[in-house]
Design brief:
Blueprint: E1 3-4, H1 18-24, H2 27-30, H3 39-47, E2 49-50, E3 55-58, E4 61-63, H4 67-74, H5 91-102, E5 111-112, E6 115-116, H6 118-127, H7 133-140, H8 147-162, E7 169-170, H9 174-184, H10 212-215, H11 219-227, H12 251-254, E8 265-268, E9 271-274
Parallel strand pairs: 1-7
Antiparallel strand pairs: 2-3, 3-4, 5-6, 8-9
Protein name: Aminotransferase-like plant mobile domain-containing protein
Pfam families: PMD
Organism: Arachis hypogaea
């Protein structure tokens, strides 16, 4: 069975930065608490994943996580510029870019090839102070990018890797995957603790405190459920007004709905995946 990397609690931040955080597009996702992983369900979904089509194969048809799910489950922006830039192959170029962006540079020991170690970035986050409008606007400008598309691309890539016979673990935005499964397959979800929360992932924040039995359901249970799945047990129109109160969803989320059913490439640097909504659009 594959193991899951567990999420960490949401970052704490001073209320004074909320306005700027909203402009970056990351305010809503920053409000998501810890959503405990259900490893057996994740494994059962991986077994149904087809990398060639980017869809799950169920008895009732093909289905997949879409940009609509990203927007409503995580609250990330789904319309905007693709996340890509020039690749830097030398340490000197990387050093110059970080000096421009952050005013400090990593040491060679903080790098692996052309990549920066996460430990250095975490230390930078803890110690970096935005003391002037120029440095603040440098971060606010990231709101022009489609972080939701990048998130979905990484989920598709994680599912692809996990579906290979020699893979033993999965990473990626598993809160998105679990939220999608629990919304689309309510018979397979734990008890919702906060049904009127946004982002919708918060419906299952700390679910294990009120539904301990669900935590111990095994892979055989979910395999059997998928094998016996009936048409009426999968929710195709998951965000209709009778299921999600439109008053809890911010207006800026719905303003980007024009791209939710688009058949397009999802781009995050070298991670490029296909948003194949044409295969299961209803």
């Amino acid at each position: 069975m594959l193991t899951c990397d567990y999420p960490v609690p949401p970052d704490r931040y001073n209320d004074r930065v909320e306005e700027h955080l909203r402009l970056t597009g990351f305010y809503h996702v920053s409000q998501i608490g810890v959503v405990q992983c259900q490893k057996a369900l994740v494994n059962a979904l991986i077994e149904r994943w087809h990398p060639d089509t980017h869809t799950f194969y169920l008895l009732i048809g093909e289905c997949a996580v879409t940009l609509e799910d990203v927007a409503l489950i995580l609250g990330l922006p789904t319309d905007g510029l693709p996340i890509t830039r020039m690749t830097m192959s030398s340490f000197e170029a990387l050093e110059a870019e970080y000096l421009l962006q952050f005013g400090v540079t990593p040491r060679k020991s903080d790098c692996r090839g052309s990549c920066i170690k996460l430990t250095w970035l975490r230390d930078l986050k803890e110690n970096l102070e935005l003391t002037d409008e120029i440095s603040i606007q440098r971060y606010v400008s990231i709101g022009q990018y489609s972080w939701g598309a990048a998130c979905l691309a990484h989920l598709y890539r994680a599912l692809y890797r996990a579906s290979r016979f020699n893979c033993k673990e999965i990473d990626g935005p598993l809160t998105l995957l679990l939220g999608w499964a629990w919304i689309r397959l309510p018979n397979l979800s734990p008890l919702s603790r906060e049904p009127r929360s946004f982002p919708l992932a918060n419906r299952w924040r700390n679910w294990e405190r009120g539904d301990r039995q669900y935590r111990y359901l095994n892979l055989a249970h979910f395999r059997k459920a998928f094998d016996e799945l009936q048409e009426g047990q999968f929710v195709w129109v998951a965000y209709a007004v009778d299921r999600v109160d439109p008053n809890i969803t911010p207006a800026e989320i719905y303003m980007q709905s024009v791209v939710w059913s688009a058949t397009v490439l999802l781009v995050s640097f070298e991670c490029i995946e296909w948003h194949a909504t044409d295969r299961f659009r209803r």
